[in-house]
Amino acid sequence: METITIDAANLHYTPLNIKIRELIRQGKKRIVLNNICGQRFIGNGIRGDDIEIVINGVPGGDLGMFMSGPTLIVHGNCDHAPGNTMDSGKIVIHGSAGDATAHSMRGGEVFVRDDIGYRGGIHMKEYHGKRPVLVVGGKAGSFIGEYMAGGLLIVLGIDRNTPVRGKGIGSGIHGGKIIIRGDVDENLLGIGAKKEPLSGEDMEDLEKYLKEYCRLFEHDFEDLSGSFYTKIIPASSRPFAGKYCWE
Amino acid sequence: MSTGATPSKYRIKVDHDQCMLCERCIDNCSYGVFRREGQKIAVDSHKCTACHRCIAMCPRDAIELEEKPNDYRSHPVWTREAREAIYKQANSGQIILSGMGNALDYPIIFDRLVLDACQVTNPSIDPLREPMELRTYLGKKPRQIVLDRTKKGDYDLKTKLSPNLMLETPVMIGHMSYGAISLNAQLSMAKAVSELGTFMGTGEGGLHKDLYPYQNHMIVQVASGRFGVDINYLERGSAIEIKIGQGAKPGIGGHLPGEKVEEDVSKTRMIPLHSDAISPAPHHDIYSIEDLAQLVRSLKEATEWKKPVFVKIAAVHNVAAIAAGIARSSADAVVIDGFRGGTGAAPRVFRDHVGIPIEAAIAAVDEKLRHQGIRNEVSLIASGGIRDSADLTKAIALGADAVYIGTAALIAMGCRVCGSCYRGLCPWGIATQRPELVSRINPDEASKNVANLIKGWTLELAELMGAAGINSLESLRGNRDRLRGYMLDEEMMKVLDVKMIGA
Fold it and tell me: Which of residues 37-76 of A touch B (CB under 8 A)?
């Protein structure tokens, strides 16, 4: 496959995105971006299931927002909200990501090798064949999966004392599930979230993404597959029912 | 329950001499007030919401409605509303949900402002004879333009202009989502704005495929739930609006109950059938003005800088400073929704007590932007309780570029402001998803009503401008000298920057 390389040193995000779009229009399928340093909005709103963009450096916020189809591979850390409101496609981050990672994502997959900031996977939702998946290898900050309406969020805590230490896991969750390696202190759960053991189906679901994580980041699958996992799901699909009376 | 039953809010009486037992009232009342008992129509007044559907449909004028038939002992503090709210909450322990706009009796500033007209010293203009320039462009205006003189002696514009929306009248219809209102209601308004050369908002409910033919007149909304938002949706809209807040419920999110999420609503919002659609209070990717700028630019990058991006906020105490921040975020327009703005459902305490009136907000925002020299960076769209062409004209004279109407457009389709939108049983087919109720709106007919309303206002606006000797909307905008305060206090007039009558 032909690879097009762009040197993004000192290039503002708008001309960079124009270049990327232009290459996609020309039918180019694989683009490598070198010297990325804080350029935001890379791959915003681009389409095409067969497009792959390799990002060498540290992209700025909203990486792949509204993206529909392509794969973004980041060799470096990410800023605020990679995969924001993403529709489909895949983001692989060989590093850590900032707050609101996979915010409001409707479909596609985001794999983060290391840690994420606060509010990861907040308000993810699923629809028909679309099911968003966020896999975090390290730890996640507070409020993960808050208001989650669908999808799957996995936090592994590899080489960390605990995958999630912050409070408010799944506050207001009304769909989807969160799977965390190890046990989770009841006190960390948000309002509307409850713990449950994993079913056989959950294990299958989990293993599929663990294998993919291990493949992407060359991690030992046995290291993860033997662990104990906790599932967090909505206590009710209607967290706000019963809150209101009529005037 | 120790509180006992509270008296019904309305009393329905059927005049049995007039009644011909056609049962139209039974068919039309979705709240179940009427039933047939032998040779007469029996009623249960407790179920009545005063929507007037029965009265409007009765062929014999046989139905009478009386508000508050049973008095409480009158008391200036412990009003009926205060007492009944307490009974409700004493029995439920819940938040009181309400519909439509602010129902408290605050003074309306628009009604304390009067417009000017020419007499003798400068002639008024007859809009019949003279052209009236009502066209409005919404979006960024360049601070300066650079022209290049060509060899032929013509001039080429060198300045790159930002995308603007062109409105033939400064009246648009605000964002009411599919889900909150019916598809037929949205279709009616979409047809009307397309015919008139103006725009309407989609609300946070996605864009139904039946509205695609009108997409060049639709402003698509991105709110905190991101329902129905994908790249196709953003590309279809003529502009994109980020909703931060709403005048009817500033500071809180929205919640469409699963019952209203039937098949088409589910498809359009892109959420599973019958699942609750919960919009969080904040956008969780916007925790600061810098984050807002990031979302504005993100939307522009995603749509290749072809669409204007608006930011809508509720009018709250520091609205001017917030709007100044928005003006620096690359946004093309700021929408200010005053505390009289309507809603399908809001906690009553928010609807009635949070936020400030639109009149003061327009004046404060326009002034702040002018003083900071950034008024050209954003257009100012005002909404929240615009009732007629007088409010429209005064809003523009205070500094707005255009207005959004909401409730007024619904009233044009039959709404009687009964305020029970959240029940999903709207007998006028507006705030409901029940097919048998939705079919009561014929979009071909209702669109004419909506278009007529906006046409009527536009004619009146032209007449008012002509009378004031103004032939262009540009000359009315922010022209506070053509307003005078009548029975407004001095401080209020300072905020509005208008003089007292007689001055």
Answer: 40-41, 44-45, 47, 61-62, 65-68
Between positions 162 and 181 of A, the ones with CB within 8 A of B are 172, 174-175
Residues shown for chain A: 247
Here the CATH number for the domain that contains residue B423 is 3.20.20.70
Could you give the angle at which helices B319-327 and B358-371 cross, rounded to 10 degrees? 50
Per-residue pLDDT tens digits for B242-251 = 999 999 999 9
The shortest C-alpha distance from A229 to chain B (Å) reads 27
Q: Same structural domain for residues B278 and B415?
A: yes
Handedness of CA B192, B193, B194, B200 (dihedral sign): negative
Instruction: In whole angstroms, give the CA distance from residue B362 to residue B193.
Output: 24
Q: Tens digit of pLDDT for each residue in B354-376?
A: 999 999 999 999 999 999 999 99
> Residue B299 above 90 pLDDT?
yes
Place of tokens 């917030």: B322
CB of A106 within 8 Å of a chain B CB? The answer is yes
pLDDT tens digits for chain A (247 residues)? 799 999 999 999 999 999 999 999 999 999 999 999 999 999 999 999 999 999 999 999 999 999 999 999 999 999 999 999 999 999 999 999 999 999 999 999 999 999 999 999 999 999 988 999 999 999 999 999 999 999 999 999 999 988 998 899 999 999 999 999 999 999 999 999 999 999 999 999 999 999 999 999 999 999 999 999 999 999 987 777 788 999 8
Task: In whole angstroms, give the CA distance from residue A233 to residue A170.
Answer: 8
Q: In the Cβ-directed half-sphere of B501, how many Cα atoms lie within 13 Å?
A: 10
Domain for residue B378, yes or no? yes
| DSSP β-ladder status, B136-138 and B147-149 | unpaired
Residue B500, in any domain of the structure: no
Q: Are A198 and A217 in contact (CB under 8 A)?
A: no
Instruction: Check whether residue B171 and residue B306 sit in a common domain.
Output: yes
Tell me the chain A residues in contact with residue B347 when contact means C-beta distances shorter than 8 Å.
Answer: 244
| B243 is a domain residue | yes
Residue carrying the six token digits 């999110």: B253
Give the distance from residue B201's alpha carbon to the nearest chain A alpha carbon, in angstroms. Answer: 20
| Contact present, B401 and B170 (Cβ < 8 Å) | yes
* HEC letters along B234-300: HHHCCEEEEECCCCCCCCCCEEECHHHCCHHHHHHHCCCCCCCEEECCCCCCCCCHHHHHHHHHHHH
Kindly list the structural domains of chain A, giving each domain's residue range(s) and its CATH number in brackets, ordered by start.
96-234 (2.160.20.60)
Host H or E run for residue B319: helix B319-327
* Cα–Cα distance measured from residue B390 to residue A138, given in angstroms and rounded to the nearest whole number: 61
Closest to A224 in 3D by CA, of A216, A232, A233: A216
Question: CB of A139 within 8 A of CB of A164?
Answer: yes
For residue A75, the SS3 value is: strand
ipTM for the assembly: 0.95
Q: Looking at the domain assignment, is residue B118 inside a domain?
A: no
With 0-12 / 13-18 / 19 or more C-beta atoms within 10 angstroms meaning exposed / middle / buried, residue B152 is exposed
Beta-ladder partners of B63 = B14
Pairing of strands B483-485, B499-500: parallel
Closest CA to A134 of A109, A117, A114: A109
The boundaries of the domain holding residue B174 are 136-140+167-476
| Shared-domain flag, residues B196 and B301 | yes
